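Troubleshooting log. The previous structure file for this entry was overwritten by mistake, so regenerating from the original sequence record. Sequence copied from the archived sheet and checked twice against the printout by T.R.
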Amino acid sequence: FGPFVLPIPKMAYRAVQGPVIVNKSGAYAIRYAGADQLRMIEEYYRLTRARDFAEWQKALAIQGVPATNFLYGDAKGNIAYFYNASFPNRKPGFDYLHVLPGDTSRDFALGTVPFAQVPRNVNPASGFLVNANNTPFQAAGAGSELKPGDYSPLLGIETDTTNRGTRAVELMGAHPSISADDLRRIKYDTGISRLSWAARWYGDIARVDPRGDAQLVQAQALLKRWNWDFDGHHSGQALAAILLR
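Regenerated output below.
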């Protein structure tokens, strides 16, 4: 408060699994890979100084950046997508979607999964790779995608997708070659993919029984005339955007 400092002591808790949160229902230790390491700056430095794909992968293998996807491209035509997560080692036989008991070592394993096991898609036959916070199993188009069955379920690889990811794969895979103008158009596309979760969600709304509510009937009619785009030039877009948010 101005020139005065009022110290407020706080007790920080920690277990072998990691930092601990204490609340009314108990104490919870957070287990995550990449804990207690500060190599992010070094890794980014070495990534930007890499002179070829081999050096770039060596820098990425530092695993100092524990939760950021990377797309790679070079002058030789190599492209790659790395689902650059750090995965904690996990013992089989436990449901890692839920809280596990922390007072026993039966379900606890030290360390991080080696970089060699991190999912990656290198030079796919489709000739392109995309990332828009979508699952690594949707990044390269039909016939070139990574297969979920090739990876241990203990890694916990996300399967969620986004409309942006689905739309990007859809548009990039629509033509055997992409011009600079095509790429610019795809980058700034504002459409909703008919194959996306958003499309299924809008379909659910369209099938809702309005039960005689005049406003709902009007809203459904407006959405039915919508062009499935947010380009700012068609009625229904504002309602669709508000519902999506």
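Helices lie at 40-49, 53-60, 163-172, 180-187, 197-206, 214-224, 237-244. Archived copy saved in two places this time.
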